[in-house]
Amino acid sequence: MNIQQSFKDEENRPCLYLVPTPIGNLEDMTYRAVRILTEVDVVLAEDTRMTAKLFNHYQIKTPLKSFHDHSSNQRVDEIIQKILSGQKIALVSDAGMPLINDPGHPLVQEALKNNIPVIALPGANAALTALIASGLPATTFTYYGFYPRNKNDRQELLQFIKTQKETALFYESPYRITQMLQSFKSDYSPNAQVVIARELTKRFEEYLRGTVDEVLTHVKEQGIKGECVVLLEGLDDDPKKDQDPLLTLSISDHVKQLIEQEKIKPNAAIKKVAKIRQLPRSQVYNSYHNID
Description:
Blueprint: H1 6-12, E1 16-19, H2 31-39, E2 42-45, H3 48-58, E3 64-66, H4 73-84, E4 89-92, H5 105-113, E5 118-120, H6 126-134, E6 141-146, H7 151-162, E7 167-172, H8 177-187, E8 193-198, E9 206-211, H9 212-222, E10 228-232, H10 251-262, H11 266-277, H12 281-288
Parallel strand pairs: 1-4, 1-5, 2-3, 2-4, 6-7
Antiparallel strand pairs: 7-10, 8-9, 8-10
């Protein structure tokens, strides 16, 4: 068992500080974060060039050293020995909270093994910033990191999320947002509420709120740029909510809606409706063409 009394410990012995940095707007640094980064002996950064811009803005002169995903165990040991010898060291992310989809976990583990106090400062975080402004429930939620690239992994994850009935949070590249929304539509629910928060705290900050279908249509038509946080509502127990509204239409109207919405030819729409409804293609063809 380990008991850490952060403020008492930092007065009496060297510590490892985890310091969040702005996710876009430099004004989001806290007074305490600037003070700690100024007072420590060394600051570890994933990309020292990125952190140097922040340091220049706040006139922080502390030496910067590189620490990233590919840093070796030997590098971790060297840092631990420096702390044990009396140095105070801070770890920062390029943007946001350290360790959230960023390197640092092995360093924190080793620090704790060596009874070194690990002191985290509060600050900017893209996922939580997006959540509280999303309009989706924030009482219970789960952050899943970056959305899986493998189709089977995506389907497995969405099936799990269906059982949780809570808001799901993801990071995603704008280049994969369309694919992500399409998987939400086919493997989760086209009617679920989804929110995309992009370019948070920057000049072009934007929130897209709507159903999966609505947001997917918008993204296909308008495109999307910038770093994105994607939030997906948890499903309730109403089976109708998970049903594609097109399934409430007649077969003929369903085909017509697909032709209009997706700008596809009748034969392609007929084939798609047959697959969606698990009907013989001939039955859909006959319904669309009013053949008895």
